[in-house]
Amino acid sequence: MLTTILLMACVTFVSRYLFLHRALPFTVGQKLQQFLSYSAPAVLTAIWVPIVLLEDGALNFTWHNPYIPAAIVAIAVAAKTNNIYYTSLAGLAVFFLLR
Hints:
2 domains, transmembrane helix, membrane
């Protein structure tokens, strides 16, 4: 188990080192940079959608689900302010008020 974790840490480090170290003769083209810019939103969406919409493996689209209004408020605040702190605080406040 520990060996697997250490090997995966090495793989992760090496793969990121190749992209980030300036001395290596490897550059990423403009199209690949643009393509990679979508990876963070895609990963974050893959994380939050099941948390917000699934309960015990089934879709939960009721207003009794406190995650849905909190997510809607967080999305609205993020679109309006572009501030991670306001977005997080607004979403958390709504979630805890409804819970």
